[in-house]
Specification:
Layout: H1 11-16, E1 51-63, E2 68-79, E3 86-89, E4 94-100, E5 103-104, E6 107-110, E7 115-118, E8 129-138, E9 151-154, E10 159-162, E11 182-190, E12 195-197, E13 201-208, E14 211-222, E15 230-232, E16 235-240, E17 246-251, H2 256-262, H3 268-279, E18 287-291, E19 300-301, E20 308-309, H4 315-326, H5 340-357, H6 363-371, H7 376-379, H8 389-392, H9 395-412, H10 414-427, H11 435-446, H12 451-459
Parallel strand pairs: 1-11, 17-18, 18-20
Antiparallel strand pairs: 1-2, 2-8, 3-7, 4-5, 4-8, 6-7, 9-10, 11-14, 12-15, 13-14, 16-17, 19-20
Bound molecules: zinc ion.
Length: about 475
């Protein structure tokens, strides 16, 4: 629940938008539009200034046969400037009404930047809470900005919701940046016989005239891309993890046998215990999974407290997604170009868990494996400096990112490395993070300058020289 420190429109933006200027020397600035971008280098149109979202209430109805999503998203936010108008990221079905604090508000849909530009009936005062309700209906269409489909993906009998990085706007309006975390309530009605699996805790499941309404509540703030609303037929099972964490698993019947064979879902309590010991206590109050039988989608995503798998996962894949609960979900990105802080860490944790399962410690072997890669294209991608959306989820971000951590472990020793991971998690959960913050903490823990090491591993478009391995 945070916005960037820069939240007031720049003079240039004010000029571009043709606003009346404020008289020089005037004590109080007139209300002005919130910025229409968070200035993310890879996704320059995402994010909105002037407010901080506190809560999303998504009251939706989904009809798989017609692929029709309808309902109202109610967003509670707090203004961080005097606002004459503001925007929400949105690329979903047609909007029929918008209200601000219960009063109808004019809205302009800006297709080029995928925004709703909303003018409240009266300006909103800096610091004041306000409530925006957006009503919409129609066929949701996933987007594709970094490879696979993102967002609300209709399937034959339901829907898969997997929104990283910027697909959340395909199914609800909001501030679609990782760092404006908010609590969420999902109230979704689907035809009888189908299930809805969201984040957090299932509060109720109520049959009604038009179907069954599922209410899911996640009161630990989460990023928009980590919110989910999976729809399908599932076999639900519940169990208890280490420390009494309730685990809620929903597995598509057609994936049930393979899920048993792969063993990843059954390994969750062990994985949570291993990571809690290594990184610090599990960040959330619930855990679990949704497993689809949609192998063609070919993804796994670390949706907060309840990762989604397109098909039955093995233990290594589950370890990766559960590691993200610490690194990616609890510790959050400030901007997408630092994605290695999520993927490098989750991949290293996956190596660590694989090693644990075999009762020895060969994470070093994975580093040697990465260093054996001779492909110039692989080493041309710098994990902390992706140049395009295509590079954002390149294999190098995962494997060179993880190799960076393993090489660092070799350089500073296992004890200091463990301290570093634990402090990174404990001290950086509260606010969005950047690579610079991580490298600064690493130098503090190591007690020495690591600039050449990190430059070679994270920023150079070539294989690190031998002295850094
Ligand atoms: Zn990942």
């Amino acid at each position: 629940m945070r916005v960037p420190s820069r939240s007031v429109s720049s003079p240039l933006l004010v000029a571009l938008l043709g606003l009346s200027g404020v008289a020089a020397g005037s004590a109080a600035a007139a209300p002005s539009p919130g910025a229409e971008s968070a200035k993310d280098r890879i996704y320059p149109t995402i994010g909105n200034g002037g407010y901080d979202v506190q809560h999303y209430d998504l009251a939706l109805d989904y009809r798989p046969a017609a692929k029709r999503l309808s309902g109202t998203a109610t967003i509670t936010a707090r203004a961080t400037q005097d606002l004459s108008r503001f925007t929400l990221d949105y690329a979903g079905p047609a909007v029929s009404a918008v209200t601000v604090d219960g009063r109808p508000a004019p809205v302009l849909r800006v297709r080029r930047t995928r925004k709703l530009r909303i003018t409240p009936p009266v300006p909103i005062t800096s610091g004041a809470p306000f409530v925006v309700a957006v009503t919409y209906a129609g066929r949701p269409r996933p987007t594709s900005t970094a490879g696979p489909d993102e967002g609300f993906i209709p399937t034959r009998r339901g829907a898969v919701v997997t929104s990283e990085p910027v697909g959340a706007k395909t199914w609800f309006p909001g501030n679609d940046v990782p760092f404006d975390k908010a609590a969420y309530t999902l109230r979704m009605t689907v035809p009888r016989g189908l299930d809805v699996v969201g984040n957090g805790v299932l509060r109720s499941k109520v049959p009604g005239a038009t179907g069954t309404t599922f209410t899911w509540v996640e009161d630990q703030p989460l990023s928009t891309y980590l919110m989910t609303a999976n729809v399908g037929r599932f076999r639900v099972s519940t169990s208890t993890g280490p420390g009494g964490i309730p685990i809620y698993d929903a597995v598509a019947p057609a994936a049930a046998e393979q899920t048993r064979e792969e063993g990843g879902i059954a390994a969750q309590p062990d994985i949570l215990a291993v990571f809690s010991k290594r990184f610090g206590a599990y960040p959330f109050t619930t855990s679990g999974s949704t497993v689809f039988d949609e192998p063609a989608l070919g993804f796994a995503l670390e949706n907060q407290s309840r990762p989604t798998y397109s098909s039955a996962p093995d233990a290594s894949t589950v370890a990766h997604e559960l590691a993200h609960q610490w690194f990616g979900d609890a510790v959050t990105l400030r901007r997408w170009s630092d994605i290695w802080l999520n993927e490098g860490f989750a991949t290293w944790a996956q190596w660590y868990y694989d090693a644990h399962r075999k009762y020895y410690f060969p994470t070093r072997a994975n580093l040697r494996g990465v260093l054996r890669i001779e492909d110039r294209a692989f080493w041309n991608v710098a994990p902390a400096a992706p140049r395009s959306r295509a590079e954002l989820f390149d294999g190098a971000v995962y494997f060179r990112g993880a190799a960076t951590l393993e090489a660092l472990r070799g350089r500073i020793g296992d004890a200091r490395f463990t301290t570093l991971l634990r402090r990174w998690y404990a001290e950086h959960r509260a606010a969005p993070t950047t690579t610079r913050q991580f490298t600064a903490l690493a130098e503090e823990v190591a007690g020495r300058d690591l600039t050449p090491f990190f430059r070679a591993w994270l920023y150079a478009h070539r294989k690190p020289a031998k002295r850094f391995r």
